[in-house]
Design brief:
This protein has 15 helices and 24 strands. The protein is an alpha+beta fold and 652 residues long. It has four domains: 86 residues, Carboxypeptidase-like, regulatory domain (Immunoglobulin-like), CATH 2.60.40.1120; 42 residues; 231 residues, no CATH class; 186 residues, Rossmann fold. Helix 13 packs antiparallel against helix 14. The longest helix has 27 residues. The radius of gyration is 26 Å and the shape is globular.
C-alpha cells in the first residue's frame, strides 16, 4: 500500500501542550482603515515558520492573548474574512507577556482576481483543457513510477503495523490521489411554498440541529466562489449560531420561546419565530462516554484538509476526555479494521498514538466500517451513558455497501442498538454532502462540516455537550394555524424535515435529536387574514363540500405542539403552547429574532429564492450589525464579513 505520511501537528492553545513555557503573546486586532477593533480574527503561532504551536481568536473588543509559549522566535499569522493575511516575526523573551498590535487591511483584490480567473477560463478552449489534463496525468504516472521504489520498502513495515493493531486492510497496489475534478454532491432542495390555512391548517416538521451548510457555504465564499444553491440549507445557516433563549425549568429538557412580529423582507407579511433551548450540562456532569471514532483513511482523504485535519480535531476531543470515558478507533479503506480497542480516557497517550498512526490510501469500504464501528460500540455499551459513533469522512464511499439507500437502511438498523451518530464532513472537490446529511438524519445524530481547525474546536470542544450528549430524541413540531388570523404560511427552510401530519402521533416515525445546550430556531412567514394576496388553489371538489373556517373570535394565532422522547425511551411526551395575536414591530423584536432573520435573508439571497422579497446584501449587513448583540466568539462578526465578501463576489 502506498501512503503519504503527514507531519504531526500539535495544538497548544486549542487543547494540547507542545511547549512547557508560561509566556504569552497578546495584543489587539484593528482595521487599518477605520482603526475599529476586529472580533473573531484567527491568530496562529508557528515555530520555524511551519510548525504549528498555538492559536486563538480575538474577542469582541479585538483583544487576544495566546499563552503556553516558551522563549524563542515565532511567526504570528492573523487572518479574518475580507482582510489580507497578516504575518510577522515575534521574539518572546523572559517577560511574561509580549505585546503586538495587529492592523489588518481590507482584501481589495478579491473581485478582480475572480474576474481575471473567469476570463482566463473562458480563453482556454476545451481542447486545450484536455491537453493540459493529459499532461498532468502523464506527469502523475511518472511521479508514481518514481515513487514506487521510494515507498516499496515500507510495505512490510506497514503490514507489521497493521497486524499489531488488528488492522485487516489488504495492501493496495495503486497510488490514490485526491480527486482532480469537482464531483461534490448535494440533494436538490425544492423550497417550501405558501400553504392555504383554510385547506392545510397543519404544519408538521422534525427539528434540525445540523450546522454543516453554514461552514460549507463559508468555505465556498472565502475561496472566492458562490456556493451552489442546493448547498444552502437555510435552517442550518440559522442554527449555526447560538441564541439567548431561557434555560428550561422543571423536568422538560428544553424551553420554548415564540415571537410574532413583522417580516423584514416583505412588509405585507408577518413572522413567527420559534426558539428551542436544550438544557445545558457541564462537561464534568456528562454521563460516561463510549465513543467509537470511525475514520475514513481511503486515498481520497490524503490532502491537508482531510485526514490531517481529522487527526487534529480528534486530538482536541481526546484532550477533553475523563477517566470514566472510553474510546475505540475503527478505520476503513479497502476493508475495515479495529486500530484501537476500547480504551479508558485516562490513557490519552495511547489514544493519541493510535490517532497519529493513521495514514491514507486505498478505496473506500464505508459500509463495512459502519458495521464494525456499531458492533464495537455495542460490545462496549455503557448503560445510562452516551454511546456514540463519530464518523469522519468526505463521504466518497465506493466499495461494498455504498448507495445512499443501502447505507441509510444500514444506519436505521444500527440505531436500534441505542447508539447515536455524529457525522463530521471534510474536504473539497469530491465531497458528498447529500450522503452525509442522510446518514446523520437516519442515525439519530448530528452533522457538521469541518473546514478548519477552529470549526473542529467549535464542534468538538466548545459544543462538546451538544455534539455528544442527546437530551431528547425524535423531537417533532406540529402547528395548527387559526384561519381567522392567518391566511397563508410558509416555513423558511427545513425542506427535507417536513413530516406528514399523521407522523406527529406516530412514535415509530424517526425525527431529529436535541443535544445538551443546543438551540433550534424555526421561522414561519405569515400572510395575515384579510390579505388580498392570491394563493395557489385547486378546482372545487366534486364529491364533498368544503369545510368553512370557524367563526371563533379567539385571539390565538396558532397552537403549537411538541413531541419528544427521553433518549432511552420509546414512548413520546407531549407539550402544547399557544401563541396569541400580540404582534410587535420588527424594531422591537428580540435580538434573537432580528439576527436569525438576517441569516435567513442571506440564505434566500444565496439560493436566489423567489421568496426573498426586498432582501439584499446591504439590508442583511445593516440588520446583522444592529442585532449582533453579545458576540464573545466572533461568529456573528464573521457572518457580517462573509455577507460583505459575497456582495463583492456578486458585483458585475
Amino acid at each position: 500500500m502506498y501512503k503519504i505520511i503527514f507531519t504531526t501537528i500539535m495544538f497548544v492553545g486549542l487543547g494540547l501542550s507542545a511547549q512547557n513555557g508560561n509566556k504569552s503573546v497578546c495584543g489587539k486586532v484593528t482595521d487599518s482603515r477605520s482603526n475599529e477593533t476586529l472580533a473573531g480574527a484567527k491568530l496562529i503561532i508557528y515555530k520555524q515558520d511551519t510548525v504549528f504551536v498555538s492559536g486563538g481568536l480575538s474577542d469582541v473588543d479585538g483583544n487576544f492573548c495566546v499563552s503556553k509559549l516558551g522563549p524563542g522566535t515565532y511567526k504570528v499569522v492573523a487572518s479574518l474574512i475580507g482582510y489580507e493575511k497578516y504575518s510577522k516575526a515575534v521574539v518572546v523573551g523572559n517577560t511574561e507577556k509580549t505585546m503586538i498590535n495587529i492592523s489588518l487591511s481590507l482584501l481589495t483584490k478579491t473581485l478582480n482576481d475572480v474576474k481575471v480567473k473567469d476570463k482566463e477560463k473562458q480563453v482556454i478552449s476545451q481542447k486545450d483543457e484536455i491537453k493540459v489534463l493529459k499532461a498532468e496525468i502523464s506527469e502523475k504516472k511518472i511521479e508514481h513510477v518514481q515513487m514506487k521504489e521510494q515507498v516499496a520498502y515500507k510495505s512490510m513495515e506497514s503490514c507489521k503495523k497493521m497486524s499489531k493493531a488488528n488492522f485487516g486492510i489488504p495492501a493496495v497496489t495503486s497510488y490514490n490521489k485526491a480527486p482532480e475534478f469537482n464531483t461534490e454532491e448535494y440533494s436538490r432542495i425544492n423550497e417550501n411554498e405558501y400553504k392555504d390555512v383554510s385547506k392545510d391548517p397543519l404544519s408538521t416538521l422534525s427539528i434540525d440541529v445540523d450546522r454543516a451548510s453554514y461552514s460549507n457555504v463559508r468555505r465556498y465564499i472565502t475561496k472566492g466562489s458562490m456556493p451552489p444553491p442546493d448547498a444552502v440549507r437555510v435552517e442550518e445557516m440559522i442554527n449555526y449560531f447560538s441564541y439567548n433563549y431561557p434555560q428550561p425549568k422543571g423536568d422538560v429538557p428544553f424551553s420554548i420561546t415564540t415571537e410574532y412580529t413583522e417580516c423584514a423582507w416583505n412588509k405585507k407579511h408577518n413572522l413567527i419565530h420559534i426558539g428551542i433551548q436544550g438544557k445545558e450540562v457541564k462537561t464534568e456532569n456528562l454521563p460516561a462516554n463510549n465513543l467509537v471514532f470511525l475514520v475514513d483513511v481511503s486515498g481520497s482523504m490524503m490532502t491537508a484538509d482531510r485526514l490531517p485535519l481529522v487527526k487534529s480535531g480528534l486530538r482536541l476531543l481526546v484532550d477533553q476526555l475523563r477517566t470514566q470515558d472510553r474510546v475505540s478507533l475503527v478505520v476503513y479503506a479497502g476493508a475495515a479494521g479495529l486500530v484501537l480497542p476500547s480504551t479508558p480516557g485516562s490513557e490519552k497517550e495511547k489514544i493519541m498514538q493510535a490517532i497519529e498512526s493513521l495514514e491514507a490510501g486505498g478505496s473506500t469500504a464505508g459500509g463495512a466500517g459502519i458495521v464494525l464501528a456499531y458492533q464495537t460500540a455495542k460490545d462496549n455499551f455503557i448503560k445510562g451513558g452516551n454511546n456514540r459513533v463519530i464518523l469522519a469522512t468526505d463521504g466518497d464511499f465506493n466499495v461494498g455497501v455504498s448507495s445512499d439507500g443501502d447505507l441509510t437502511r444500514l444506519i436505521e438498523q444500527k440505531r436500534e442498538d441505542g447508539v447515536f451518530l455524529t457525522v463530521l464532513g471534510f474536504g473539497t472537490g469530491n465531497y458528498k454532502d447529500s450522503k452525509m446529511e442522510q446518514l446523520a438524519d437516519k442515525g439519530n445524530g448530528n452533522y457538521a462540516y469541518v473546514d478548519d481547525i477552529f470549526e473542529a474546536k467549535k464542534v468538538l470542544v466548545k459544543e462538546m455537550g451538544g455534539t455528544l450528549l442527546t437530551i431528547a430524541k425524535d423531537v417533532k413540531i406540529q402547528i395548527e394555524f387559526n384561519p381567522n388570523k392567518v391566511k397563508g404560511y410558509r416555513l423558511v427552510g427545513y425542506e427535507n424535515r417536513i413530516l406528514n401530519k399523521e407522523d406527529f402521533n406516530n412514535d415509530k416515525k424517526d425525527a431529529g435529536e436535541l443535544g445538551a445546550g443546543h438551540t433550534v430556531t424555526a421561522i414561519y412567514e405569515i400572510i395575515p387574514a384579510g390579505s388580498d394576496e392570491v394563493l395557489a388553489s385547486i378546482d372545487p371538489l366534486k364529491y364533498q363540500s368544503p369545510v368553512a373556517p370557524s367563526k371563533s373570535t379567539s385571539s390565538e394565532i396558532m397552537t403549537i405542539k411538541f413531541r419528544y422522547k427521553e433518549p432511552s425511551e420509546s414512548v413520546s411526551k407531549l407539550i402544547t403552547e399557544v401563541l396569541k395575536d400580540d404582534k410587535v414591530s420588527f424594531s422591537k423584536a428580540s435580538e434573537n429574532c432580528r439576527f436569525s432573520s438576517a441569516v435567513a435573508q442571506f440564505g434566500m439571497i444565496l439560493r436566489d429564492s423567489k421568496f426573498k422579497g426586498d432582501a439584499d446584501y446591504k439590508s442583511v449587513i445593516a440588520l446583522a450589525k444592529q442585532s449582533k448583540g453579545k458576540d464573545d466568539e466572533g461568529y456573528r462578526a464573521e457572518f457580517i464579513r462573509l455577507v460583505e465578501m459575497a456582495e463583492l463576489l456578486k458585483k458585475p
